[in-house]
């Protein structure tokens, strides 16, 4: 019996937590969630904490979905997703990133990129396998690795390298148990990207140590100045790589939960097994919307990317003028300034920014190794809000400087 | 028409969104030099690419009665001048807010604004219809404006994203 507040029990009570899986119990709640709770409830806060586009899904995409619902397209699709959508994804990946996947057995559509990563990990991990994760990175990789029975091994990346992964950094963390490398470039939270030259030495290490790569390329469309280079497009890497992506960031479709994974047919088939026993298929209405986005959405996407790029310039200049060191992010929609010079931890800085200046941003420490001393600021917000937020950040930095001088 | 280069086009797009943006802000957004942007704007003002900086007003929200009509006008073009002369005779009236030459069932689309229905009706019967080459007019009163120049007047698409998200 577990404890029940309303019903006093004469029997020996047992707490509910003793029923929970030890794997789940060891997982910490997300640091982003903690900050969300702090910020929730206040109305007049400017948020730079949002990890999603500030655009609505383009109307033609929403309209295509509504129209298909009206016609009664509400049933299951095949487990891997509508054949037309898989073909659309194959054509898109070929045109944009020079990748050739067979839609028949190398592509599976999933409930967001998140499910694809989970499937990949569950299909690959044997208990105790070590999963290499360059950090700072998206908050989920390490917990879902642990839930899957793997051992997450962080690889710290540094501001001086513009948060790129280096072959030496990777090599230093490899042990006989290393099995998977999770990549996420363009990077959330740092905005770092990897060029072909950056990738080549990484690919050598991957080959030498016989690693499998899960490459989360959800931000691939959001690069500024140079085109995204998919890790799978490097010589010899296609069969070792599970490419994970989705529609959330490029087409402003976060709530639709539409993602996909591509890779070697045997890997995809293993992932498909888990997928069909857990979620059956991605939502049919989401698949219709995704197909419309791929077919007719490139112009809208370009317009959105153009707009992010403008605001990227604004925030980087503004943060530097506010007195914070900030490398130039080349992808995604986050600036990752250093707040180390202010004498506060990233957690303290973010809390004071929120409480005293009503700007929400995410402390770098929640993103793992190397994140401490930084702040993640999303620039997917309006120009006027950005300007106001930058002024307030400047005011906090000035205040902190004064406080330090008074102490000295 | 002069070929508008890339910078000028972007400047125009950004000013169309918000005409109060300063050259400094425009330069930052576009990654250009402030001087470059200033020069581009001055040139475009001089060439009448930028005709005017105006404010888009939703008059429905102001306690200020006014009615707008879109009038389809059929005319006989004049020898030698076509539609130009007649269009000018019409657009010079201050009540006339816009005039377009159209393809299709009629020739000119004339937007007329007045304080009330009678004022617009009077304009049509006393000024517009009597013009020699005007063959017919068809007056359509607008009841409500939803969108103008790409701007939705009552935009229901609020930002309802979570304050903090992954």
Automatic annotation (TrEMBL), chain A:
InterPro entries: Aminotransferase_I/II_large (IPR004839), AspAT/PAT-like (IPR050596), NHTrfase_class1_PyrdxlP-BS (IPR004838), PyrdxlP-dep_Trfase (IPR015424), PyrdxlP-dep_Trfase_major (IPR015421), PyrdxlP-dep_Trfase_small (IPR015422). One of its GO terms (molecular function) is pyridoxal phosphate binding. GO terms for biological process: amino acid metabolic process. Gene3D superfamilies: Aspartate Aminotransferase, domain 1, Type I PLP-dependent aspartate aminotransferase-like (Major domain). Pfam families: Aminotran_1_2 (PF00155). The keyword Transcription regulation does not apply. It comes from the Bacteria. Keywords: Aminotransferase, Pyridoxal phosphate, Transferase. Signal peptide: none annotated. Its EC number is 2.6.1.-. Residues 43-393 form the Aminotransferase class I/classII large domain. Its cofactor is pyridoxal 5'-phosphate. Belongs to the class-I pyridoxal-phosphate-dependent aminotransferase family. This is Aminotransferase. It comes from Paenibacillus durus ATCC 35681.
Automatic annotation (TrEMBL), chain B:
Residues 73-144 form the Transcription regulator AsnC/Lrp ligand binding domain. SUPFAM superfamilies: Dimeric alpha+beta barrel, Winged helix' DNA-binding domain. InterPro entries: Dimeric_a/b-barrel, HTH-Siroheme_Decarb, Tscrpt_reg_AsnC-like, Tscrpt_reg_AsnC/Lrp_C, WH-like_DNA-bd_sf, WH_DNA-bd_sf. Pfam families: AsnC_trans_reg (PF01037). It comes from the Bacteria. SMART domains: HTH_ASNC (SM00344). This is AsnC family transcriptional regulator.
């Amino acid at each position: 019996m577990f404890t029940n507040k309303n019903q006093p029990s004469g029997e020996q009570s047992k707490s509910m937590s003793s029923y929970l899986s030890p794997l789940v119990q060891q997982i910490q709640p997300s640091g982003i969630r903690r900050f969300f709770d702090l910020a929730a409830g206040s109305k007049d806060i400017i948020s730079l904490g949002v990890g999603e586009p500030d655009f609505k899904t383009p109307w033609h995409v929403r309209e295509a979905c509504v129209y298909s619902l009206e016609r009664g397209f509400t049933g299951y699709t095949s487990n891997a997703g509508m054949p037309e959508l898989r073909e659309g994804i194959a054509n898109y990946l070929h045109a944009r990133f020079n990748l050739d996947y067979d839609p028949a057995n190398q592509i599976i559509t999933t409930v967001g990129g998140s499910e694809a990563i989970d499937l990949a990990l569950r299909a690959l991990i044997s208990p105790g396998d070590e999963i290499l994760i360059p950090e700072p990175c998206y908050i989920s990789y390490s917990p879902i690795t642990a839930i899957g029975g793997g051992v997450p091994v962080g690889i710290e990346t540094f501001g001086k390298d513009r948060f790129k992964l280096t072959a030496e950094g990777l090599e230093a963390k490899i042990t006989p148990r290393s099995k998977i490398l999770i990549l996420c470039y363009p990077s959330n939270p740092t905005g770092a990207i990897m060029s072909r030259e950056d990738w080549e030495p990484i690919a050598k290490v991957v080959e030498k140590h016989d690693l499998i790569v899960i490459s989360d390329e959800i931000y691939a469309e959001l690069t500024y100045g140079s085109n995204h280079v998919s890790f799978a497009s490097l010589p010899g890497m296609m069969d070792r790589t599970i490419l994970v992506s989705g529609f959330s960031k490029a087409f402003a479709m976060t709530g639709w939960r539409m993602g996909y994974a591509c890779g070697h047919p045997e890997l995809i088939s293993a992932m498909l097994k888990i997928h069909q026993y857990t979620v059956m298929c991605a939502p049919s209405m989401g698949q219709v919307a995704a197909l419309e986005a791929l077919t007719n959405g490139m112009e809208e996407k370009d317009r959105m990317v153009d707009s992010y790029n403008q605001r990227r310039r604004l925030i980087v200049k503004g943060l530097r003028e506010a007195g914070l060191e900030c490398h130039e992010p080349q992808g995604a929609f986050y600036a990752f300034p250093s707040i180390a010079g202010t004498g506060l931890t990233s957690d303290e800085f973010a809390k004071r920014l929120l409480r005293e200046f009503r700007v929400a941003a995410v402390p770098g420490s929640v993103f793992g190794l190397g994140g401490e001393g930084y702040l993640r600021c999303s620039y997917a917000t309006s120009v006027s809000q950005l300007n106001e937020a930058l002024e307030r950040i400047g005011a906090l930095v000035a205040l902190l400087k004064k406080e330090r001088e008074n102490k000295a | 028409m002069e070929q508008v280069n890339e910078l000028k086009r972007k400047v125009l797009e950004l000013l169309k969104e918000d005409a109060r943006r300063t050259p400094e802000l425009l330069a930052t957004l576009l990654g250009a030099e402030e001087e470059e942007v200033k020069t581009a704007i001055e040139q475009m003002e001089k060439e009448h690419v930028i005709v005017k900086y105006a404010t888009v007003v939703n008059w429905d929200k102001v306690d200020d009665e006014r009615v707008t009509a879109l009038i389809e006008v059929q005319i006989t073009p004049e020898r030698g001048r076509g539609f130009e002369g007649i269009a000018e005779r019409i657009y010079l009236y201050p009540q006339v807010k816009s005039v377009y030459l159209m393809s299709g069932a009629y020739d000119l689309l004339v937007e007329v604004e007045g304080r009330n229905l009678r004022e617009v009706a009077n304009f049509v019967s006393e000024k517009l219809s009597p013009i020699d080459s005007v063959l017919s007019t068809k007056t359509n009163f607008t009841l409500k404006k939803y969108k103008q120049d790409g701007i939705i007047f009552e935009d229901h698409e609020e930002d309802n994203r979570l304050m903090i998200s992954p």
